Each structure stands twice: as C-alpha cells, then as structure tokens.
C-alpha cells in the first residue's frame, strides 16, 4: 500500500535536544518510551499528566501545541482496558479515543510537528482474520464484539494518519502492538488486561492463603504477549526508520493459550493452589497472532522472553504496587 515500507525518514535519533511530546507518559507504554528515550540521551521530553492537559479538550490541546511546538509526537495516551472494561464502557472507549487522537493528530499537523507515531492495537483486525495476521487483513471482516468500539476508534486513527500523509505529505505513522505487559501496567482486578489481572490475583491468593484462583473464560484463547520495553524499542526504531503509509504490526511472534499463561504466572508468583475456570466470562477473540514480518524485514526483533518478562514484572509489582 502506498509508500514503500523501507522508505527512510529524516533521522529522529541524532538530535537528542529535539522536543518530543510523549502523550500518556505515565501509562504502561508511555512510561516505557520515556525510559527508552532517556536512556538514549533525549533531554527535551515534553510531558503532561492527564490533570495538566486533558487531551479530549480540543482548545487546550491547541493551546499546548501552539505554545510548546514539539518537533516529534509519540501518541500513547488513550482509554485502555481489558476485555471486561471494553465490553462494559463502549461509549468511553469509542468517544475518548476518537477525541484524543483527533485532537492530537490534527494539532500536531497544524503546528508543524515533523513526525508523529500513533499507537493502535491488534484488536483492529477482524475476529476471524488469517493467522498470523498481516497488515493487509485490516477491514476485511467483522470485528470481535467485545472490543469493536475501541477497535473502530483505533482504525480511525490509522486512517487519519494515512489521510494526512496522502493529502498533506505529512509524516504520520501507526504501530499496532500486540498484547503488552510490564512495569506501570494497570493491575485493577476487573478493568485490566489478563496478565496483570492474573499476577495480582495469584499474588493476593498466595499472601492470603487461598486454595483457589478463578480465571475468566475457558482458557483456550491464544494470545501473543510482548514486553513493553521491547515495544518502546520498536517505537523508537520506527520513528527512525519508517515513513510508510501502511500501519506496522509489532508482535513477539510467539503465542500462548490463556491456560498456559495462567500456569506460567502461577509458577512465577509461587501460588500453589488450584486454578478454576469461570466460563460465564467471555473468551473474546479465539486467536490474534500478528504477522510482524514487515517490521522484522526493516531490521527489528524483540529481545525479552515471556518468562523473563514475567519475572521482571513480578519483581516490579512487589516493589511498587501497594496492597
Ligand atoms: N496495554 C496493552 O496491552 C496495549 C496497549 N496498546 C496501546 O498503547 C497505548 C498506551 O496504552 P497503555 O500504556 O497500555 O495504557 P495506560 O492506560 O497504561 O496509559 C494510558 C495513558 O493515557 C493517559 N490518558 C488517558 N486519557 C487521557 C486524557 N483524556 N488526557 C490525557 N491523558 C490521558 C493516561 O493518563 P491517566 O491514567 O491519568 O488517565 C495514561 O497515562 C494505547 O494507544 C493503547 O491502545 C496497544 C496494544 C496493547
Ligand atoms: C490488548 C487487547 O486487550 C483486550 O483484548 P483481549 O486480548 O481479549 O484482552 P484481555 O487481556 O482482557 O483478555 C485476554 C483473555 O484472557 C482472559 N482472562 C482470563 N482471566 C482474565 C482476567 O482476570 N482479566 C482479563 N482481562 N482477562 C482474563 C479473557 O477472558 C480473554 O480470553 C481488548 O480489550 C482489546 O482492546 C485489546 O487491544
């Protein structure tokens, strides 16, 4: 589709004093990107909390861009949640995400941002997409109902980046990460994603001496997990190397069943009781392994195995999450 995937951009990495706005810098993804940029020596990161700048408020976003004039934008602010949150708050998931991304993308373009990366999600693809899912599977079939509202907003974000590239020749790209985990994840008991939810549930069961832990669904769905530090590395890589029209999948290439994940988290946490399945809860999409060969062909690959990533995340949880 459109521009060649290996088209080189103006270099992002050389100017470490460039103003980079990382939207959503306190979240799972935004905080990992900030760590990565700081490790690389970036000295001029623009960071605003949700309380400082509500990105759903167009006039505030406009005023921020006109006064701060960032050169680069990494858009990692969004309304995010797991299967239950997506299913329970469809209006929030579509409206907040459309507002944030529309405001940030449009203001970025009009205030001279040189390059923007928008983060979507693997849920943009049809529920029964071919596996592994290539970028071209977008808009080829019906979405998974538990997260179609969020997915529609994310698809609109991809299309907005493409439209601005086509009409204005503006360098907006999109990355589609698979299911992520790591430090600063959301460990809410109901609204989080499966991995932090299970880490917390197994941990609490271990501390409280429970005999059983309940896990949602049948355990049969397959998911692909990527450590957020790998994702942050991929985002910086794409900022440096990629300026194409197509969105780019970012996955680890390996998938596990939710049953296998539960056993692995149980082992890492050290819970010795039984796992009980609550099949009144939705399974969601049966499988969503992404085809990340486009990114690999550009020269990027992940480094952190699921087991190592889980151990590191559990250590982080023990140090940072208060009971
Ligand atoms: N987590 C995952 O498994 C995956 C995430 N992604 C994508 O990565 C991106 C980041 O997700 P993730 O880091 O997990 O999400 P988090 O919920 O951890 O972080 C989102 C961030 O956005 C901020 N934010 C939300 N609403 C607003 C607002 N109205 N104004 C300003 N800031 C706001 C939040 O601040 P506050 O908390 O104060 O509201 C928070 O810092 C999203 O685009 C998501 O779709 C893609 C695939 C998988
Ligand atoms: C990243 C991605 O995240 C969401 O999609 P999802 O992949 O279905 O994410 P999930 O992590 O919430 O669930 C994965 C699987 O795990 C099972 N499961 C078991 N026990 C718990 C549990 O305790 N919590 C949760 N959340 N799930 C559980 C659950 O039933 C499901 O089968 C989308 O909202 C979508 O918007 C999106 O982009």
UniProtKB/TrEMBL annotation:
Pathway(s) annotated for this protein in UniProt: Nucleotide-sugar biosynthesis; GDP-L-fucose biosynthesis via de novo pathway; GDP-L-fucose from GDP-alpha-D-mannose: step 2/2
One MF term in the entry's GO annotations: GDP-L-fucose synthase activity
Swiss-Prot/TrEMBL catalytic activity: GDP-beta-L-fucose + NADP(+) = GDP-4-dehydro-alpha-D-rhamnose + NADPH + H(+)
Stretches assigned to the NAD-dependent epimerase/dehydratase domain: 20-251
Example of a GO biological process term: 'de novo' GDP-L-fucose biosynthetic process
Record-listed E.C. numbers: 1.1.1.271
KW Oxidoreductase (keyword) present: yes
Taxonomy, superkingdom: Eukaryota
Listed InterPro entries: Epimerase_deHydtase, GDP_fucose/colitose_synth, NAD(P)-bd_dom_sf
Keyword annotations of the record: Isomerase, Multifunctional enzyme, NADP, Oxidoreductase
Family (UniProt): Belongs to the NAD(P)-dependent epimerase/dehydratase family. Fucose synthase subfamily.
Name of the molecule in the record: GDP-L-fucose synthase
Protein species of origin: Cephalotus follicularis
């Amino acid at each position: 589709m459109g521009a060649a995937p290996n088209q080189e951009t103006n270099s992002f990495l050389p100017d470490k004093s460039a103003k980079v706005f990382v939207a959503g810098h306190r979240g799972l993804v935004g905080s990992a990107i900030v760590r990565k940029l700081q490790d690389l020596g970036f000295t001029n990161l623009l960071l605003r909390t949700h309380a400082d700048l509500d990105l759903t408020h167009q006039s505030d976003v406009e005023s921020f861009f006109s006064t701060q004039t960032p050169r680069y934008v990494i858009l990692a602010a969004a309304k995010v949640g797991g299967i239950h949150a997506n299913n329970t708050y469809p209006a929030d998931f579509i409206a907040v995400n459309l507002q944030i991304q529309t405001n940030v993308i449009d203001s970025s373009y009009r205030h001279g941002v040189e390059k923007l990366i928008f983060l979507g999600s693997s849920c943009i693809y049809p529920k029964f997409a071919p596996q592994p899912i290539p970028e071209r599977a977008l808009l080829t079939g019906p979405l998974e109902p538990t997260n179609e509202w969020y997915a529609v907003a994310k698809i609109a974000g991809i299309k907005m980046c493409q439209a601005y590239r086509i009409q204005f020749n503006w360098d907006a790209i999109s990355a589609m990460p698979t299911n992520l985990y790591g430090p600063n994840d959301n460990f809410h008991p109901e609204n989080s994603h499966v991995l932090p939810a299970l880490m917390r549930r197994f941990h609490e069961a271990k501390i409280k001496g429970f005999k059983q832990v309940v896990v949602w669904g049948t355990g049969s769905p397959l998911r692909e997990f990527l450590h957020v530090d790998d994702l942050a590395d991929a985002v910086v890589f794409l900022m440096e190397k990629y300026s194409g029209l197509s969105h780019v999948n970012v996955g680890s290439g390996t998938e596990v069943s939710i049953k296998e994940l539960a056993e692995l988290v149980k082992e890492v946490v050290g819970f010795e009781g039984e796992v009980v399945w609550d099949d009144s809860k939705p399974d969601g999409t049966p499988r969503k392994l992404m085809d990340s060969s486009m990114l690999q062909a550009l020269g990027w690959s992940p480094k952190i195995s699921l087991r190592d990533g889980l151990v590191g995340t559990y250590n982080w949880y023990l140090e940072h999450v208060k009971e």
